[in-house]
Amino acid sequence: MEHTNHSDLLPDVLRQGIVVFVFLAALTALEFFVAVEIGTLVLLAAIAVVKVGLILYYYMHIYRLNSQDGDLDRHEYQYKLGTNRIGLWLFLLSDSFIFGGLFVSRFNLLGVQPIPLASDSQYIALTITSVLLLSSFFMNRAEVSMEHGSRRGFVFGIASTMILGLIFLVGVVVVEWPSAINAGVTPSSNAAGSIFFIMTGMHAFHVLTGVIFLGIVLRNGLRGVYSPERHWAVEAATIYWHFVDVIWVFFYSALYLVGKLI
Amino acid sequence: MRHYVIAGVLVIVLAVATYAGLMAVHLMPAQASAQAVTIDNLWNLELAVISFLFALIMVPLLYSLFVFRRRKDEKGEGEHIEGNTTLEITWTVVPLILVLVFAYLGTYTLGEVLAVDPNAMEVDVIARQWAWQFDYPQGFSSKELHLLVNHQVVLNMKSLDVLHDFYVPQFRIKQDILPGEITTYRITPTMIGDFTAECAQLCGTGHTYMTATVIVQSQSDYDAWIKAQEAAAAAAAQTPLGRGQQLVAQNGCTGCHSVDGSSTGIAPTWKGLYQSQVKLNNGTAVTADAAYLTESIVSPSAKIVAGFQDNVMPKTFGTALTQSQISDIVTYIESLK
Amino acid sequence: MKKFFTSALIRGLLWQLIGWIVGVLFLTGIRMLMGLPPLVSGQYLFTEPAWVFGALVGAVSYVAGTGAMTDWFKWAKGEDVPEHREDPPGWEKYINVSLDHKVIGIQYTVTALFLLSIGGLFALIFRAELAHSGLQFLSLTTYNTLMSLHGIIMIIGILLGVAGMINYLTPLLVGAQDMAFPRLNAFSYWLAPPATIIMLTVLLFGGVDTGWWGYPPLSEQAPLGMQMFFLSVAVAGWSSILGALNMLATVLRMRTQGMTGMRMPIFVWSAIATSLISLTATQLIGLAFQLVMFSRMLGMGFFDAAKGGNPILFQHLFWFYSHPAVYVFVLPGFGIISELLPVFARKPLFGYRFVAMASLGIALVGFLVWAHHMFASGMNPYLRVPFMFSTLLVAVPTGVKFFSWVATLWKGKIETPTPMLFTIGAIVVFLLGGLSGPPNATVATDLHLNNTYWIVGHFHDTMFGGYIFPFFAAIYYWFPKATGRKLNETMGKIHFWMMTPSFLVLTLLMMRVGLLGMRRRVADYDPALGFDNYHLVMTIAGFLIALSVLLFFYNLIVSVKHGELATDNVWHSRSPEWQVPSPMPVHNYDRPFEVVGEPYDYGLPGSVYVKFKENKSKAHK
After folding, report:
1. Of A83, A87, A109, the CB nearest to C310
2. Residues 142-171 in C contacting B (C-alpha not used; CB under 8 Å)
3. Is the pLDDT of residue A8 over 60?
4. DSSP characters over C138-173
5. What angle do CA C457, C458, C462 make, to 5 degrees?
6. What is the ipTM for the molecules in this complex?
7. What is the pLDDT of residue C256?
């Protein structure tokens, strides 16, 4: 993945990031509307596929996965960077299988029946989904800032991402879960409750590890460990954070939007 | 060239010999159902292909090891052959075609095996750890499965606890049994005789001995048996002892407790139990009076007999059975001297 | 002695014990704070969640205690860490954390042999019980536990042995100094000892009665040992996943100049296919087991029909991994066969391209067949048909390999030292395993065969032919590369000729009794069936196999110090690792090499595969 250090690239990449984010947000809103008002699974699935396509496009084209570094010595930093990137993507490929398994289990157990959550769950979920999508925007901003030597931008971006991530976690664990339990949807009530808690729990665990990872990166960044030329940890944390966000984009639809709830 | 000819001939010889050998040793048990015949036909066809493929690989392999071995003090390497695209495509495409043929035959055979006879009779099967119960539409339960020869039967099966599986090797079919949903087993027995149904899905401690007798009978014998069971059920319902015996059959007690004194390894025998001295696992001894027997049904963990485990007997009988049902069962146990 | 007791292996054990205790007490404390009962009356004092959490903390503590994570902690603190670490020269490097893939490969291999021996020992115990009808000395519950542990311990042993082969060989074959992520490699290995310890504690916590599959509802009722079983598999599974990640990154990024896809040693293709499966599918068995673990601890109803759950869902999740897993077991072995036949037949591998693609083909199709394990499960009856098609389809790429192997031998100039004997043995044994597959693929016949000893014979043949025999072949073959000495040839031949006929008899008799209706996973059988003589012979065969393995261990131990010296290219192989002296230099290739020809051009005068460069490679930091 090549990034030239020209400062005019910053607005370019940032602009593309904003565009993608806005699209994702708009699609999510559309999903919400479609699910709640129209209730067709096919349309929901189509929107989900479009979202995935957008995200993949962002990464494939803007980050250009294929690097032309075959001539470099294997021990050079630039070469190792490429190897690290492949390692991270392989890890995310593996991790997506657990989430895929959970996703499939939801439909095996419940078909397209909705999970009988309380009515305010929809709004809580839409809120925390927006929070998580917004956090990805700030995450992207933090990484781009680091690449272009903007320390303030980096710190602000990471801190904002962490705060929004924590808000998401609080939203799930402190607001959504008790709300679900009050509505009779508990881990042991029935299959619907079980799948709800395991999916949100597994995802929240990944958000938590992401926040911890970001904390480490923030601390090291403040101590000057990273530079525009060497900041693999920042890039890794960013990609991981986006991954966790993408997973939620699918889980949110599967848990809240499938089946008409309102 | 001669290598190919010799190997070719040997392949055919070995294939035929292998097939003949396999057919001669009677690999399969007796065919006791219509479905067994269909299945065995597919099986025999598969054996033929297996024999051929076995020969096709073994002959050139052994031939090479022998004919193309390096002799003592012989120098040099093998022939520099990198491949042969035509041959490689052939041995990809031909097996592919063979696979599709067998997949089709497999589909066809499955269809035959599942063929529904609208006149099939039905029996309900209840599987539990570790006993079988067969409920007949005439309104009685039996520990043995009696079937009518040449008449299709549909077993509607369900489990009260974990996964089980109903399997009779001579019938050739098995089907898992689930809690919470009915699975069906459709068979047309064609041979009069006694067979054994075995549980074929590991279901815990008693899996090894979870078997039931399957008796295939002629029309007259079958009708006689049905009549006798109906009469026995009616008579049994009159006395505590009879009711107790029925309840025992219905609740699978004899899956773990024998009535003839034999050891199952899972639970104490009932023969001679009443009023005997029972050694418990805490070193004390008690008399197996009616109170003890009742307590053992309702609260199995209260006293554990030495040499047996706690948490094996279901704890649900106290709520699942009424007091009078429990008392009838105790009466039955008392009768086993 | 002191070196042993201060090693990472032992240090880790201490940390695991401490971590386990801390974890148990911590969760018990949390329970007290939450107002839940902290203890249980009866057997194990602490609650199940406490024991499970403790075991998890114990496993992590083991690895942290070895020091395998220390560099990562330093990176997290922003500190720099030297790129390479030199190992001490003696045997102690094998029981400490090493970043050298060759040391890690040997660690994996030795651990694998240890686990395979334990699994084998359990088998000998219940085979002694099964030799006669009637229960002689095992109780029904002890039999269930030993049988279940035999299965899972063998499987984990195979996964570790696969990791051993892949780790040792891949950098050597692609011309790399080490794997792409050496620290991740060490971490992956050091997950194996704690996983083994946890698995062995199953015996202390009441055993398991479910077989290695752990199907609910039975596994939801099983003793506490079930949780240890699940956790152990999860820990070992992570070892598998991370090792696969490392392998794929290595192949993509660390190949030497000139090594295009079609010029890699063929074993690398097998390793790629294997790693693609390990990387992805393993997560599903983790998920399936995790769902049961949580069901037990939180009352979750995924598989409980009374709560709207579905026991068949477990089977889908479980087999989605466990079928591709068998290809993880056999693809590396197939790679070994493809690698060794050209050397001993002095002939090119026939149809390299097709053989390489067949590995990928097997991996891909292998993902599409899982429900053939569920034909009698009560799954949707019509869904069985596409799975029958896909299962039969796997025979095609497997057949391509078999035909290619035979064609490689044909017109060769064949020698049969011990590695070659095991290679040929692998082909013959797997042939029987593979040919006993299609009747299981056609649904109607499978309804008779499923869950009988026919299946047991089928998978023992495929496992031995696809893994065990090639594993032995690989050890006999690369032992000189690792140690500079050969294993004793006479003992090797005795090992082979004792093991192979015994094994064939064992599995053919398994198939026989299975066809006649003997179910699997039973501690006893009806004497009226007439199986007593068959079982006696099977038990004797099993003991003969064990004896041959003991001879092999003796050979290993003696040959390390006293084996015939073999510091050159003893097999006259064209492969790069044999172009440098044995034992393999610590940094593999002091002078890098370039690929200038085809890997298997035996019999082509003047052809060269690799050419070493004049300059030494860049200094190691």
Report:
1. A109
2. 143-144
3. no
4. --HHHHHHHHHHHHHHHHHHHHHHHHHHHHHHHHHH
5. 115
6. 0.94
7. 94
Does C504 have pLDDT greater than 90?
Answer: yes
Give the SS3 label for residue B165.
strand
| Cis check: omega of the bond before B130, within 30 degrees of 0 | yes
Q: How far is CA C5 from CA A55, B172, C92, in A?
A: 52, 58, 11
- Of A102, A108, A220, Cβ closest to residue C287: A102
Record: fold of C82-612: Cytochrome C Oxidase; Chain A (1.20.210)
CB contact under 8 A, A194 and C252: no
Do C519 and B200 make contact, defined as CB atoms within 8 angstroms?
Answer: yes
**Nearest chain B Cα distance for residue C8, angstroms:** 39
Low-confidence ranges of chain B (pLDDT < 50): none
Provide the CATH topology of domain A9-257.
Four Helix Bundle (Hemerythrin (Met), subunit A) (1.20.120)
Which band of pLDDT confidence, cut at 50, 70 and 90, is reported for residue A257?
Answer: confident
Chain C environment of B43 (Cβ under 8 Å): 439, 445, 448
- C494 to chain B, any CB pair closer than 8 A? The answer is no
In this prediction, residue C318 carries a pLDDT of 98
Contact check, Cβ <8 Å, C284/A219? no
How close C76 gets to chain A, by Cα (Å)?
Answer: 6
- Residues near C606 by beta carbon (within 8 Å), at least 6 away in sequence: none
Q: Which of A83, A109, A189 shows the shortest C-beta gap to C302?
A: A109
C 214-273: CB under 8 A from B? 215, 217-218, 221
- The chains found to touch B (3+ Cβ pairs under 8 angstroms) are C
Cβ neighbours of B161 in C, within 8 Å: 217, 221
- Max CA separation in chain A (angstroms): 61
Residues above pLDDT 90, as percent of chain C: 95
Q: Which amino acid is at A49?
A: V
C247: chain A residues, CB-CB within 8 Å: none
* pLDDT tens digit sequence for B34-65: 999 999 999 999 999 999 999 999 999 999 99
What does the H/E/C string look like for chain A?
CCCCCCCCHHHHHHHHHHHHHHHHHHHHHHHHHHHHHHCCHHHHHHHHHHHHHHHHHHHHHHHCCCCCCCCCCCCCHHHHHHHHHHHHHHHHHHHHHHHHHHHHHHHHHHCCCCCCCCCHHHHHHHHHHHHHHHHHHHHHHHHHHHHCCCHHHHHHHHHHHHHHHHHHHHHHHHHHHHHHHHCCCCCCCCHHHHHHHHHHHHHHHHHHHHHHHHHHHHHHHHCCCCCCCCCHHHHHHHHHHHHHHHHHHHHHHHHHHCCCCC
Q: Which residues of A touch C286 (CB under 8 A)?
A: 98
- Give how far B232 is from chain C: nearest CA, Å: 31
Q: Which residue of B has its CA nearest to C137?
A: B265
Q: Collapse the DSSP code of B54 into the 3-class scheme (helix H, G, I; strand E, B; otherwise coil) and give the result.
A: helix
For residue range A87-119, list pLDDT tens digits in order: 999 999 999 999 999 999 999 999 888 999 988
pLDDT band at A2 (very low <50, low <70, confident <90, very high): very low
Q: Are C335 and C271 in contact (CB under 8 A)?
A: yes
Q: Domain ranges for chain A, please list them.
A: 9-257
Do chain A and chain B touch with ≥3 beta carbon pairs under 8 Å? no
Instruction: Reduce the secondary structure of B60-88 to three states and give it as a string.
Output: HHHHHHHHCECCCCCCCCCCCCCCCHHHH
Residue A122: the pLDDT is: 87
Q: How far apart are CA C406 and CA B81, in angstroms?
A: 13
CA C592 → CA A76, B142, C168, C575, distances in Å? 16, 78, 18, 14
Quote the pTM value: 0.92
Question: Is the model's pLDDT at A65 over the cut of 70?
Answer: no
